[in-house]
Write a structure and sequence with these properties.
The protein folds into 2 domains: about 130 residues, Response regulator (Rossmann fold, 3-Layer(aba) Sandwich), CATH 3.40.50; about 150 residues, Reverse transcriptase/Diguanylate cyclase domain (Alpha-Beta Plaits). About 50% of the residues lie in helices and about 20% in strands. The protein is built from 10 helices and 13 strands. α2 packs parallel to α3 and α8 packs antiparallel against α9. The longest helix is centred in the middle third of the chain and has 33 residues.
Length: about 300
């Protein structure tokens, strides 16, 4: 993919020289003739590198870099190009987060080498971040069901607390007589049952809002953001599982059902307490005959 470079300079002559030179090197070039234009357009362009002049009539390059530095998540590398060659100026530019400070009149060979190094380093960092994000996701996902695992639950609770929110409904779901399924049909079929139940749960909630976890061996936790339609969601999960018709490799049919315990958050102060009450309601559902819903 062609790398993008944004040049911010109020001198048309400098812009023209750099544009022609960088285009000849295969870069896609974008220009801004003042600091305000750079601030407005940078997130639409999302360049891989910014060449930033210091002395401009509206906002200095230092002002622009300081604004970008204070923006959460801004990680585009900046190289200053400036006629200000005093040591204090160079130090100020580097202290504002620039990866380099080159003086005018600029040396095109030096600029080519510097740009190549900066973009290569940024590409490597972005690749590492992507790999770390994938690893982090794998750590938080149960490999059998593809639901979040229990280890990730506390992180989700903390994120919700930081946002000043709380899940409206906690729903504990347990597969009835799951041990007998494993004992009679083997663990591979047991895993298949877990996968099918997880698919039903995921299809019944809103991705990106609600959250579903494999809480224990055959126990699942669902956290709903809104109270609206929670009974319909629970009944849909119970009914779809009850309608499953799983066939073993030996052509034997497996009947599957789930019991559900529900708890409303407005009764309790913490998400942890809501989950605990949903777990108690689940045991009530199982004690009352299984394949049913009980609300605490």
């Amino acid at each position: 993919m062609t790398k993008r470079i944004m040049i911010v300079d109020d001198e048309p002559h400098n812009l023209a020289i750099l544009r022609i030179f960088l285009n000849s090197l295969g870069y896609e070039v974008f220009e801004a003739e003042c600091g305000k234009d750079a601030l407005v357009n940078v997130m639409d362009i999302l360049p891989d590198l910014i060449l930033l002049d210091v002395m401009m009539p509206d906002l200095s390059g230092f002002n622009v870099a300081e604004i970008w530095r204070d923006q959460p998540g801004f990680n585009i590398p900046i190289v200053f190009l400036s006629a200000k060659v005093q040591k204090d100026d160079i130090l100020q530019g580097l202290q504002l987060g620039a990866v380099d400070y080159l003086t005018k009149p600029f040396d095109l060979d030096l600029i080519e080498k510097k740009i190549s190094i900066v973009i290569a380093n940024r590409t490597e960092i972005l690749n590492l971040k992507s790999e770390n994000a994938e690893l982090s996701l794998k750590v938080n996902i149960d490999p059998v069901t593809s639901l979040y695992n229990r280890n990730y639950l506390q992180s989700v609770i903390e994120q919700v607390k930081e946002g000043g929110m709380q899940f409206a409904i906690a729903m504990m779901i347990d597969i009835d007589y799951f041990k007998e399924i494993n004992d009679e049909h083997g663990h591979l079929m047991g895993d298949q049952v877990l996968k099918e139940v997880a698919k039903i749960i995921l299809s019944s909630i809103r991705a990106g809002h609600d959250a579903a976890f494999r809480y224990g061996g055959d126990e699942f936790l669902v956290l709903l953001v809104e109270e609206r339609n929670y009974l319909s969601i629970a009944e849909s999960i119970r009914g779809q599982v009850d309608a499953l018709n799983l066939i073993t490799p030996f052509k034997r049919s497996i009947q599957v059902s789930v019991s559900l315990g529900l708890s409303k958050s407005y009764k309790y102060k913490t998400t942890e307490r809501v989950i605990a009450c949903a777990d108690t309601a689940l045991y009530d559902a199982k004690n009352r005959g299984r394949n049913r819903i009980y609300i605490s």
